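Same chain as my last thread, 220 residues:
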Amino acid sequence: MRLTYLGHSAFEIIIDGYKILIDPFLVKLPDYNSMNVNDIFVTHAHSDHLGSAIEIAKATGAKITAIYELANYCAKFGVRTNGIGLGAKINYKWGKVSAVPAFHSSSFIDGTYGGCPCGFVFEVEGKVFYHAGDTSLSSEMKAICEYYEPDLAMLPIGGTFTMDIEAAVKAAEWLGVSAVIPMHYNTFDKISVNIEDFERQIRQHGKIPLIMPIGATKEF
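reply #2:
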């Protein structure tokens, strides 16, 4: 499995030749090549997460997986969708993905309701990783730890709209993960952080900080 950070909360995953995107808001990597995408996962309807999902799905035929109301919205644009509910799991040719609770809001750019926000748990090639979407610290993370036993978490750290660094460190503890990729930080002034603070605090709690520059790739 190859994971590439596309900026903000966006990631590309390559698994056995399948190309998967999560929250493809690509303002930090505008020249990203979105050809040959197979699946797109969107955690909620805010424009910095829905991003270019619909446009990419139209161009590639990729299927968008999102909470039911958001999936229905995307389907109105003629793209293929998987509507999913919290706690549900969908099987793909390359693995399994479950939708899990996120504590945030979800609306379209005109303010209309976009369905509840979520995170996603991916079970791929014997590994489990958790993309939290936008969320606060929540005891649901203890349930995710007990039920899914994730190895790796992608956690927002920017504060203001999501967890901050201190809350993300506690989330990593509750999730039981060995490593954390920080996301949703330094895109806008309101979510600016000193990433060295995150690195120091997460190491103090015995976790590995996987700080990925935009466009960087890691193999797992």
